[in-house]
Amino acid sequence: MSEAYIVAATRTAGGRKAGRLSGWHPADLLGKVIDGVVDRTGIDPAAVEDVIAGCVGQVGEQAMNLARNGVLASKLPESVPGTTVDRQCGSSQQALHFAAQAVMSGAMDVVIACGAESMSRVPMFSNAVLAQKAGMGYYVSPAMQQRYPNIEFSQFVGAEMMARKYDITKDQLDQYAFDTTQRAIAATRAGAFEDEILPLEVRQYDGAQPPGEMHTIDEGIRFDATLERIAGVKLLAENGRVTAATASQICDGASAVMVVNEKALKAHGLKPLARIHHMTVIGHDPVIMLEAPLPATVQALKKSGMKIDDIDLFEVNEAFAPVPLAWLQITGADPARLNVNGGAIALGHPLGGSGTKLMTTLVHALKQQNKRYGLQTMCEGGGLANVTIVERL
């Protein structure tokens, strides 16, 4: 079986809710990052055989197959197909897995995996809430209710459950949020994101578009953050431990990676950034919901024949601070290798766009630090988790 290689990876800088990217239609955001990876490789756009995009809120401007609409908003010819994946927050990480599997099998040679989410224009839970309000019912079925009686499927509840299960205090959560913010600030000031970010014109939701102003810095970073301010944020639940300050930020953004096999490397003269070394996806408890990255990482290491210390850098999505802290407990990973340039608490989490966003950051960080192996994982709605291990080349 052939290998799968990442030959280009890019992302937009994150935009705050109603912020600097909120005037962009999500299909146009996706089209821009698709063009970005094509431009970085110099490949003939017609050589792309499929576009697989992750998106969670597949309604409104993100409905009707966002991947295909992104293709039609890009420089790719009409002959390039597209399909949209929903594995909740892991949607574009799953898109990457599907792309890798396609080129490894030889069914295709060049595939773009990508994702986009405009949380300003398509608010979180829109697809479920709007359908329910329109009288089309709720996604939790009678059979699900029978299997999980009186259960609320909620990531917010799951975050509190994880904090208590792993005995993570509010003070520890607050400290983690402060630390990841400081890492994001340091990375930004050091120019660590410059090679991965695709500059875009600023477009506000209200139509404001400052002439020539470009969006190049993650808008969610709180450069004036202090531990005291973070600690003072209101709890999300009475007697809880998690606050908005220790949860990922609502974010607008898109990202893309180009995945190819050896045949395409030779045919198009491409230089790989990394090789896909291993891929895992598991289902886990849908009630605590956010815990799946922990057993998924253990399984991925076992199946790949690796130990945690073999991995140089980790990207564990910071949907809520209890997730990476519990993950550190279970895996015994070196905290200094985790989310070294900050995570979603500081940078934002554009839902379906986060999978290829984290991979973009990971492969660039491996290159900058001259490291070899990187591991990416994230919690996903419904109690799911993907794990991807890559080797920098």
Overview of the molecule:
By secondary structure, the chain is an alpha/beta fold. The protein is built from 13 helices and eleven strands. The strands form two sheets. Strands 3-2-4-7-1-8-11-10-9 form a nine-stranded mixed beta sheet, sandwiched between helices. Strands 5-6 form a two-stranded antiparallel sheet. Strand 10 (373-380) and strand 11 (384-392) form a beta hairpin. Helix 1 packs across helix 2 (66-72) and helix 10 (293-304) packs parallel to helix 11 (322-331). The longest helix has 20 residues, at 170-189. The chain is globular. The two termini are 19 Å apart. 54% of the residues are buried.
Instruction: Bin the helical content.
Output: 25-40%
* Apparent shape: globular
Sequence of strands across the biggest β-sheet:
3-2-4-7-1-8-11-10-9
What's the gyration radius in Å? 20 Å
Summarize the helices and strands and which ones pair or pack.
Blueprint: E1 5-11, H1 26-41, E2 50-54, H2 66-72, E3 82-85, H3 91-105, E4 110-118, H4 126-133, H5 142-147, H6 155-165, H7 170-189, E5 200-201, E6 214-215, H8 227-231, E7 252-260, H9 262-268, E8 274-283, H10 293-304, E9 313-316, H11 322-331, H12 344-347, H13 354-368, E10 373-380, E11 384-392
Helix pairs in contact: 1-2, 3-13, 10-11
